[in-house]
Specification:
The complex is a heterodimer of chains A (365) and B (473). Chain A contains 13 helices and 2 strands; from the N terminus they run βαααααααααααααβ. Chain A has 365 residues and is mostly helical. Chain A has a domain of 228 residues. A two-stranded antiparallel ribbon of chain A has the order 1-2. In chain A, α4 runs parallel beside α6 and α8 crosses α10. Chain A is globular and about 80 Å long. With 473 residues, chain B is of the alpha/beta class. Chain B folds into 3 domains: 91 residues, no CATH class; 152 residues, Response regulator (Rossmann fold, 3-Layer(aba) Sandwich), CATH 3.40.50; 183 residues, Response regulator (Rossmann fold, 3-Layer(aba) Sandwich), CATH 3.40.50.2300. In chain B, the strands form 5 sheets. Chain B has a 6-stranded parallel sheet, sandwiched between helices. Chain B has a 6-stranded parallel sheet with strand order 12-11-10-8-9-18, sandwiched between helices. In chain B, α8 packs across α9 and α10 runs parallel beside α11. The longest helix of chain B is centred in the first third of the chain and has 23 residues. Classes of the chains: A mainly alpha (365), B alpha/beta (473). The interface between A and B is large, with 55 and 63 residues.
Chain lengths: 365, 473
């Protein structure tokens, strides 16, 4: 009798350390290989394309500042998703919280006007943006912690509401966010004191360092504090946490609120940085959704969010520039990002399961 | 309008927000350029494609890269006259025009090799003017971007240059790095075809005073502090930034006449994008045109809050048709409204381009754009050393705005009266916004005989009497 080979997935009790690094790395490489096949099939040279993408994204001084500038917001949405992942919570609505962060930040900047100095204005704008993001996740967080309603659905659906809200504020004549007596759908610029564009002719703003600091603080929070320990226990075994007297409801609520605030911070970063105004064009960029991919790549490791955020920003900004430096369509860059997500999620299987190929004896028929 | 290239079916994948609504062209679908480039015809001496060796790598594969290979064409037209810049330019222009004209069938659609080698290997005399255009979507939308692409194709044909297309660039602050890179790579003139490109482009224009920036649908007012922008006042604006747009309301009025005649129950519908002056102006002009031939006509407006989303446009169209309207007009980038109208046996007034074949039975006509002359003229001026920085507002008189061909159901009398009205508009004896005009509430906004000035047109935020819906969205 022939003995067919069967693939068996055996759950691991513990993931070896080397796999946590190796799997995302191989995922990225596999995605690039898949992308190369696609490039070959459509008649572009993968080597030229990747070389150009790398040099546009990372090699020139403008490439680096553009990449780090873009990574600022991507790291925000990345840690937002990653922080919720810590407790097996899936905040898919980082995109919507990012819009709210923009609305909150722009509101703060416009409402305070030019009266206060920068060192007060900029923290205020960032704080209000974060608050607005937290506010946007309040309802999903509450119903998740009290009733167990799936946060995946609620946070995602609220994103569409948030997008409509942005449109509403910009396209309504006489709205607070647009110029009085102008029927054009263009948000007002926040005052100079609430803008970091004065920091020189670059797309890299000091907010990048702030965001890195926030990321490291969260890393410390999760790894070194009692609060972080509670999160770990709940994530590993909600029942054990319950017996240990950990209030899972309260922790769920707080983790989700922090997650929302981080995406909101990303929106506010755009207000003090390159956008400077509430701009409906934000809904075309998908920074919030990109955060989910970044978090998936960096699974369970905050410092890795910084790395994967920068990598992703480079891919994206290099991909955007590919059109100019070569004739590669922009879809290539977008496709590569999708491929990376696909392979990163697929790679999870290797981290969680031991995979064997076994020969099975077929029983007589 | 006459020269339409074939790329009919567009497959659209709706996946995530970042990709939503973006058309993806199927690989198996070839356009006529593809046949042109792989046929034996290209081996003729006139053809710039003669030495394209690898057909897979020729950008003919996609219509986006339809182009003339500038270096090859110019070397086939060697110059003997002393080469002052202007002389050289004019001479080359006419030679190229002649070459292009005689060989247009052969060469117009041929692609080059990849551009990185173009820019390095092209002889210096061929780089007269480096033109780039930035698109919000892709030319496959059969609407706004498609029509700009037609203009760019004409520019390429007129000046014998190769234009760099940058597609799918979101029109917000993020686009600044696209403009910055284009400027730093030495493009002489950059056309940006969407409203939201204004501020990012102006920021880059300050840094690159030698590059000419052109902002479609823009208004310089929006860059000043008073308009919510970053520059103190008009004199502080970069001196190398121009805007261009046109009086689509003229053709809208004419298309309204066709709709007013076609309706059986006097109920017209209008699928509109966003409640901004440009769109409101169009709705009003359409309504006034319809009422000029049918005083009882009303126009019901539905806002989609999107320029480009076939699904939403289709749903909005169907809800209007269900509400009983029998003629649909649109201010959208796709043909979804036409398809919906065709299915219900209603009539349709399109927009942007002459796409009768999308819904032949429903088709009445459409206001369309003709950007080519402006693109050619501006690029030529830049090559000659001047950057047009006016706020250019084209019209039917200069041909930037046109009316598409009529559908079969538009009878000869109607066609004649529309044509006659169009001639009055071109002659300047008639303007669509001429009083008496009153708003939705019956309040008079323009007294009898009074003509609306450009400023009030560009900031129009009220609906005229007969429009059903809110001008606030």
């Amino acid at each position: 009798m022939r003995s067919p080979i069967r693939i068996v997935f055996e759950q691991r009790n513990e993931t070896p350390k080397y796999l946590s690094t190796l799997v995302p790395l191989i995922s990225v490489i596999a995605a690039l290989v898949a992308g190369a096949l696609f490039l070959l099939a459509t008649g572009y040279s993968p080597i030229d394309t990747y070389t150009n993408m790398l040099s546009d994204g990372f090699a020139s001084s403008r490439g680096i500042t553009d990449t780090l500038g873009l990574s600022t917001v991507l790291i925000c949405t990345g840690i937002s998703a990653a922080f919720a992942f810590q407790m097996n919570l899936y905040n898919i609505g980082g995109e919507g919280q990012l819009y709210l962060g923009m609305i909150g930040g722009a509101w703060a900047g416009l409402a305070l006007g030019d009266r206060l100095p920068s060192f007060v204005m900029i923290p205020t704008v960032l704080l209000l943006g974060a608050l607005a993001g937290a506010l946007w996740i309040l309802i999903p967080a509450y119903v998740r912690s009290r009733l167990g309603t799936s946060e995946i659905v609620t946070t995602l659906l609220l994103t569409y509401v948030a997008a409509s809200l942005v449109d509403h504020f910009v396209y309504t004549p006489g709205s607070f966010f647009v110029t009085k007596n102008s029927a054009f759908p263009q948000g007002r610029l926040v005052p100079d004191s609430a803008s970091l564009t004065a920091f020189g002719n670059t797309s890299l703003y000091p907010t990048f360092f702030l965001v890195v600091l926030v990321t490291l603080t969260l890393f410390w929070l999760v790894k070194r504090t009692e609060y972080g320990y509670r999160i770990q226990v709940i994530a590993d075994s909600p029942r054990a946490a319950h017996y240990a007297g950990i209030n899972a409801n309260r922790t769920t609520l707080s983790v989700m609120l922090i997650s929302g605030a981080l995406s909101g911070l990303g929106g506010a970063v755009l207000i003090v940085g390159p956008f400077g105004r509430l701009d409906p064009g934000i809904t075309m960029l998908g920074y919030g959704y990109a955060g989910i991919v970044i978090a998936a790549l960096a699974r369970n490791n905050f410092s890795a969010v910084i790395v994967s955020g920068i990598l992703f920003a480079g891919l994206r900004s290099g991909g955007d520039k590919l059109q100019i430096s070569t004739d590669t369509p922009i879809h290539i860059g977008v496709m590569l990002q999708g491929a990376i997500l696909l392979f990163a999620l697929g790679g999870e299987a290797f981290r969680r399961y031991r995979i064997h190929a076994v020969r099975t004896e077929r029983t007589a028929q | 309008m006459a020269e339409r290239v074939g790329f009919e079916p567009t497959v659209r994948f709706k996946t995530d927000n970042a990709l939503a609504g973006r058309p993806i062209r199927p690989l198996w679908h070839l356009s006529w350029e593809d046949f042109e480039c792989t046929s034996g015809l290209r081996a003729t001496t006139l053809s710039p494609c003669a030495d394209v060796v690898n057909p897979l790598r020729t950008p003919c594969f996609s219509m986006i890269w339809v182009r003339m290979e500038q270096s090859k064409v110019s070397s086939s037209a060697p110059s003997e006259v002393p080469q002052t810049r202007e002389n050289l330019h004019m001479k080359k222009f006419w030679k190229l025009a002649a070459v292009a004209a005689t060989a247009s069938l052969l060469v117009a659609a041929c692609g080059g090799s990849d551009s990185s080698s173009d820019t390095t290997s092209a002889p210096a005399e061929a780089t007269d003017v480096k033109v780039a255009v930035v698109y919000l979507g892709t030319a496959e939308d059969k609407g706004w971007t498609y029509q700009h692409e037609q203009g760019i194709l004409q520019l390429e044909k007129d000046l014998g240059v190769e234009v760099k297309r940058i597609e799918n660039i979101a029109d917000n602050a993020d686009s600044e790095k696209t403009f910055e890179q284009l400027a730093s790579e030495g493009y002489d003139v950059i056309f940006a075809t969407s409203f939201g490109y204004g501020s990012p482009m102006a920021n880059v224009a300050v840094k690159y005073p030698d590059v000419c920036f052109q902002w479609a649908t823009g208004a310089k007012f929006l860059l000043t502090k008073a308009g919510g922008g970053a520059f103190a006042d008009f004199p502080d604006l970069p001196a190398n930034l121009g805007t261009y747009f046109g009086a689509a309301e003229e053709a809208r009025y004419l298309s309204g006449m066709a709709a007013g005649k076609a309706t059986k129950n006097n109920k017209l519908g209008y699928v509109a994008a966003f409640p901004i002056p440009e769109v409101i102006r169009g709705i009003n002009a359409f309504t006034l045109g319809a009422q000029s031939v049918n005083p009882d006509a009303t126009v019901q407006v539905t806002w989609t809050k999107t320029w480009f989303d076939p699904t939403i446009e289709k749903e909005a169209s169907e809800s209007l048709l269900d509400a009983g309207v029998d003629v649909l007009a649109q201010h959208q980038d796709t043909t979804a409204a036409g398809v919906a109208a065709e299915a219900k046996g209603a009539k349709w007034v399109g927009y942007n381009s002459d796409v009768k074949e999308a819904a032949p039975a429903a088709w009445l006509t459409a206001p369309t754009w003709n950007w080519g002359p402006y693109y050619s003229k501006t690029s030529k001026a830049v090559a000659d050393g001047t950057c047009p920085t006016d706020e250019y507002y084209g019209s039917m008189a200069d041909g930037m705005v046109t009316l598409a061909s009529f559908g079969e159901s538009v009878d000869a009398d109607t066609q004649a009266s529309i044509t006659a009205k169009g001639e009055e508009i071109i002659a300047g004896t008639f303007a669509p916004f001429t009083g008496p005009i009153s708003d939705q509430d019956g309040k008079e906004v323009l007294a009898a005989g009074e003509k609306a000035d450009l400023g009030s047109l560009l900031s129009m935020s009220y609906f005229v009497k007969g429009v059903i819906g809110s001008a606030k969205g």
